[in-house]
Amino acid sequence: MKAFEIMNELCAMALENSSWKPGEGTCDTLKAGDACREAGKVAVTMFGTPDVIRAAAAWGADMMIVHEPLYYNHPDNHSDEAQEVVKRALLEGTGMTVYRFHDHSHKARPDMITDGLVRIVFPELAAGDAYVSDPGHLTLTEPKTPRELARAFEQKLGIRRVRIVGAADEKCTHIALRPGDPGGVLEELATDWCEVVVVGEACEWHHYEYARDAAQLGRKKAVLVLGHVGSERDGMAYIASLLAARLPDVEFRYFDCGEVYTYAD
Predict the structure, then answer these.
(1) Longest dimension (CA), the chain
(2) 123 vs 109, 153, 170, 173, 243, CA distance in Å?
(3) From the CA atom positions of the chain, what is the Rg in Å?
(4) FRET pair for 122, CA 20 to 30 Å: which of 31, 43, 97, 158?
């Protein structure tokens, strides 16, 4: 199967239940290689780090699908910056065709990245009517504190440490899911409905301080910070599994880029 056929199938899968129309501004474009290349082995990952590039090439990948930028800017515009030049040479030297799958995944209904997280941490809610109709919001059947939720995320997603901002020990049922580097965090916290916002990363002085002040003012508000990779990588693993089921003649493998953080202990 040619790389462009896999790209088209992936985008069609994402848009099955979405009215979004990709425009010229989308970052979901070919980043390296030949779209007409035959792709029998496809690597899927969150960040195309040098280690992931090497591992995918050693596996024999013809194609790689990444979620986030390769070259430190959202549209992956090329520059002569020294590190970018070295990384680009590494990638292009493998001969792999590389496609970025970001906007389509988030415009799917439900959001494919969020859906991958929910299916691991809250499998009993993944197919619920409330979640499907409003995929960024979850209503727990059993109230949990943000501290209990943080432990669940750590255990089920393999995240080393989830940070908690705000009211850590108040029982909550209403959770807004904002994986990655999202917008709308403050807007969620300001609503009467939302009690906990789950983010990958957000602005500390703005969003986190709002949550801390809210808790000190007696409001049941908290933010759980999973880290960008921790909040989205299971969505890409989920996408790899969907592709494998949809295109059985192609071999798909998810490559984990690992958390970006190193800890002292």
Answers:
(1) 60
(2) 17, 13, 23, 16, 20
(3) 19
(4) 43
CA atoms within 13 A on the CB side of 224: 30
223: Cβ–Cβ under 8 A, 6 or more apart, which residues?
164, 165, 166, 185, 189, 196, 197, 198, 199, 202, 207, 208, 211
Task: With 0.85 as the threshold, say if the pTM is over it.
Answer: yes
pLDDT tens readout for residues 160-202: 999 999 999 999 999 999 999 988 999 999 999 999 999 999 9
Q: What does the pLDDT look like over 198-210, one tens digit per residue?
A: 999 999 999 999 9
CA dist 93 → 72, 83, 132, 203 (Å): 19, 15, 42, 37
Retrieve residue 176's tokens. 């807004």
d(CA 118, CA 149): 13
- The 3-class secondary structure across the chain, one letter per residue, is CEHHHHHHHHHHHHCCCCCCCCCCCCCCCEEECCCCCECCEEEEECCCCHHHHHHHHHHCCCEEEECCCCCCCCCCCCCCCHHHHHHHHHHHHHCCEEEECCHHHHHCCCCHHHHHHHHHHCCCCCCCHHHHHCCCEEEEEEEECHHHHHHHHHHHHCCCCCEEEECCCCCEEEEEEECCCCCCHHHHHHCCCCCEEEECCCCHHHHHHHHHHHHHCCCCCEEEECCHHHHHHHHHHHHHHHHHHHCCCCEEEEECCCCCCCCCC
Distance, in Å, from the CA atom of 99 to the CA atom of 17, rounded to the nearest integer, reads: 22
